[in-house]
Amino acid sequence: MKILFASSEAYPLVKTGGLADVAGALPVALTQSGHDIRLIVPAYPQVLHTARDITLLTPLGELISGHPGQLLAARMPDSDLRLILVECPTLFERTGGPYSGADGMDWPDNHLRFAFFSMAAALVAGGATGAGWSADILHANDWQTGLAPAYLRFLGAPNTRAVFTIHNMRYQGLFPPEVMAELELPRIAFNIEGLEFHGQLSMLKAGLAFADRITTVSPTYAEEILRPEFAYGMEGLLNARRRDLTGVLNGIDEAAWNPGTDRNLPETYGLDDLSGKAACKSTLQRELGLAADPDAPLFSMVTRLTEQKGIDLVVSIIPQLVELGAQVAVLGAGDAHWEYVLRTLPVAADRMVARLGYDEALAHRFIAGADMFLMPSRFEPCGLTQMYAMRYGTLPVVRRTGGLADTVSEAGFIPARGSSGTGFLFDESSPEALFEAAAKGVDMFADKRAWRLAQSHAMQQDFSWARAADEYAWIYKVLAPHSAANEKKTRGEAA
Ligand code: ADP
Q1: Closest ligand 1 atom, CA of 333?
Q2: Residue 418: what pLDDT?
Q3: Could you tell me if 53 and 490 are in contact, meaning their C-beta atoms sit under 8 angstroms apart?
């Protein structure tokens, strides 16, 4: 099958969060199972700098008035994955992040940037460019590519179907209705069955309304988003489409996140010998100025600083954790308020440390060096860091929601059966509930045998992309216009 995977970020080209990890790994896993897959991404400067073998594919002209562009062919720096880069200097060639400038403010022309990108993806998938390739499946992701299924629909590409994956319902790509005039979509698309959302234009809704199939990144989140508290007003549409909605749990990049080969660590380690993990802990304690104490349970957190991730809950329990003899290390970037709160917390510097900023290598050391990993998210579509933590023998403390509920099981020591489970869970989004779960972890940490067993369970979980790729391949297969399932359906209808 031929698949075009459209994403506004992809590791290692450009990354702000989990979407990049998925877009970097899932297409590679699908290639390994024999599919012809191409990843299409905007040609931001960091992408042009990192991709290899870049050549001109075809000019695109002004898909959006005043913004000429072209398609480039390239390859990922670290794999043979084929890339299609959407180059448009007026929209993508600027210093800053993919969605916002250095001042943290969204780019004011994001509607044009992602409309251009989405239209380019739809044109490539539908075979309407000089790229010499078309796709059976256009797989779009999150609001930035939500318009791609809409463009595909209005383009009229009978041989291409659209899958839309929700990585996070919270970000909806909302714009004032006036921008509709600039997006080269028929006026009719702006209605309650299409892009219109309470008088505004929602790019996320475009994906949900126009894709043939919707997926999200964990089975539990697929159920949660049918409820108002998780769906932010999209629950009606999602319930109407629930038969087309599936949850497929993300995998993790097991090469990048492997304690046995990780070059970011002072020492590597594996299931059979955890001495390297002890070295990671002591080096991290030294690096961060924490007391050099192997017996102090060390909690870490690596996160975007937003309330989604429950940073407020963590901040509230830090003094209590420290009183229990624990240490806490937070690596986070994002909300200036939480950066300030973390910087000024009145807790002894040898017990609690916050590192502010985005640092990939440090993230690896935080995850490897800690004993437990805090992830008390209010909602979590899938979450990757709890899976990284388990792989590194660092037991996660998580709220039972979304992908956290699907990946972490309660660790407990039963004398007759040994230990089962891989982490510590709680339900209510409150500091008390989080503290209770973390304190269970501290208790178990004191019991070296139970701890070792739980670590070993955690490290043996299968979070490979191969499993997720199989599930996606099945979804594509059923959907593809020339699939056996569809041809049978068509024959049945004709008879
Ligand atoms: P989300 O996509 O909601 O931010 P995930 O757990 O799915 O959450 O993915 C987050 C990814 O971003 C992980 O790879 C994590 O290691 C990384 N990450 C988050 N914050 C930081 C940070 N401050 N420094 C380095 N890496 C970070």
Answers
A1: 23
A2: 59
A3: no
Residues contacting ligand 1 via CB (< 6 Å): 17-18, 21, 302-304, 331-333, 358-360, 363, 382-385
Closest alpha carbon to 246 in 278, 276, 264, 223: 223
Q: Where are the domains of the chain?
A: 2-251+465-494, 275-459
Per-residue pLDDT, 491: 52
* Ligand 1 mutation pick, 22, 303, 388, max ligand atoms within 8 A of CB: 303
Query: Given this model, what pLDDT does residue 18 score?
Result: 85
Q: Which atom number of ligand 1 is nearest to the Cα of residue 355? A: 23
CB atoms within 10 A of CB 298: 23
- Contacts of residue 135, defined as CB under 8 A and 6 or more positions apart, other chains included, come to 2, 3, 4, 38, 124, 125, 127, 160
Closest of 470, 417, 298 to residue 369, by C-alpha = 298
Q: Whose CA is nearest to atom 20 of ligand 1?
A: 303
Instruction: Return the pLDDT at 253.
Output: 85
Q: What is the pLDDT of residue 255?
A: 87
One fold for 2-251+465-494 and 275-459:
yes
Q: Which atom of ligand 1 is nearest to the CA of 380?
A: 3
Residue 305 β-bridge partners: 334
pLDDT of residue 24: 94
CATH of 2-251+465-494, one of 3.40.50.2000, 3.40.228.10, 3.10.290.10, 3.20.20.80: 3.40.50.2000
Burial class (CB in 10 A: 0-12, 13-18, 19+), 122: buried
Question: What pLDDT does 494 receive?
Answer: 43
Q: Which mean pLDDT values do the consecutive 10-residue runs of the chain (495 residues) have?
A: 97 92 94 94 98 97 97 96 98 96 93 98 95 95 98 94 96 96 94 95 98 98 97 97 97 92 98 97 98 97 95 97 97 94 92 95 98 98 96 98 97 68 97 98 94 94 93 95 59 46
Secondary structure of residue 276 in the 3-state scheme? helix
- The half-sphere exposure of 309 on its side-chain side, counting CA atoms within 13 A, is 24
Extract the tokens encoding 336: 């200036």
pLDDT at 493: 46
| Superfamily per CATH, domain 275-459 | Glycogen Phosphorylase B; (3.40.50.2000)
User: How many A from CA of 4 to the centre of ligand 1?
Assistant: 25
Name the phi and psi angles at 272, rounded to 5. Answer: -80, -25
